[in-house]
Structure prediction request, 390 residues.
Amino acid sequence: MLKFQVHSPGKVILHGEHAVVYNRPALAAVVGLGTNLQFRQEAGSQVASFQLEALNCTLEIQLADFNAFLEKFRSKYPVDSRAKLMEEVRGEVSKQLERAAGSTTKPHTQRAFISIYYLLAGAVLSSPKDPKLTLQTGFQVQVDTELNVGAGLGSSASFGAALAAAFLILSGHFDQESYLQEENQALISSWAYESERVNHGTPSGLDNTVCTYGGMLRYVKGQGFQSLSIQKPLNILLVDSRVSRSTADIVAKVRHLAEGFPQLIEAIWQACEELVTAAVPLYESFGNAQDDSAKFEKLERLFQINNDLLKAIGVSHPKLEQIFTIAFKRGFFSKLTGAGAGGYAIVLLPENYECNEVYWKLKEELESAGFGVHVTTAGGVGLRVSSLDD
Ligand SMILES: Nc1ncnc2c1ncn2[C@@H]1O[C@H](COP(=O)(O)OP(=O)(O)OP(=O)(O)O)[C@@H](O)[C@H]1O
Ligand SMILES: C[C@@](O)(CCO)CC(=O)[O-]
Prediction:
């Protein structure tokens, strides 16, 4: 019986959030927090069951219903039509949820169920093993996460990448030994992107790419990415403003602003691009010299400029401003990350920050002001599959 686990990291955008939606480059990196998925096939079971800890719910799919759905889809559409598949899955899931719980299912749960059903059906329909593959053995999937959902750390892409890897292994696209091959990583990332599409209308593709491949990377929508060759991960403090918001809503508000003042906002995107260009060599050389303090100071300035540009497009929030002020007062530089209007801020931490008394004061002050604080690194490894003991 198939049994394995997947760890898929979350991400921070270091520079270029929002600008990336308008085809400008962004720099992003994985963080040391992520989603953990455990997959166990169960002999004799006819149910696929999903325990989603973050949403405090368990979702079930009866294999007989799922196989009937696949058969109907195959008879009506080309199996590689993702647009049709998403449409059909939305209909099927809302029927199933209505049957199970009336109309009481929360939006997060509904979206998670659509992602699960869509990615599972997509992986099985495109199986290289058998064009008529159906699921014969039930399984249990347990998903735990260290990422807050809807806070800018890419929980949806991390969740989608973990599901994609599990379902692609289940349907024979690759196995635990070959998932790191280039074409298999590209497949995981492309299905994680599909999961993102369930949540946002037009994601840039940045989040699923960085979660899958890891490290730190420069990304341009529609053009792919380049991995930065960093010497070592960067130390950062993630600060949770505890203000939740919807990425899709904020992206829509920024689009409205950009339509109202096209040249002005275009100039901001141009500045964001220059910022990424200036930042890349700094990140790539950081850590290769005895004394990095001059480079670190430049990075701090770039953090500040980037944050001010994001404030200019209206995606800050009074709680984020409070975080920036506390950090600045203690001599640290910070910026919002991701969509903004809440979610997380990142504070840049110097080498040996633990030996610095001011760091501990900063942490204490942020915590007593009610913010969630988590020290981590930016730029570690991407999605990993490993074996699972009982
Ligand atoms: N651990 C999880 N378990 C179940 N569903 C999850 C989990 N993490 C994310 N999701 C799904 O992702 C959706 C959240 O997506 P959203 O894009 O709003 O947040 P995010 O990815 O954390 O933020 P951002 O895209 O700004 O980084 C949820 O509605 C849910 O469907
Ligand atoms: C705001 C945004 O740039 C980042 C969200 O994490 C939107 C996107 O890239 O899709």
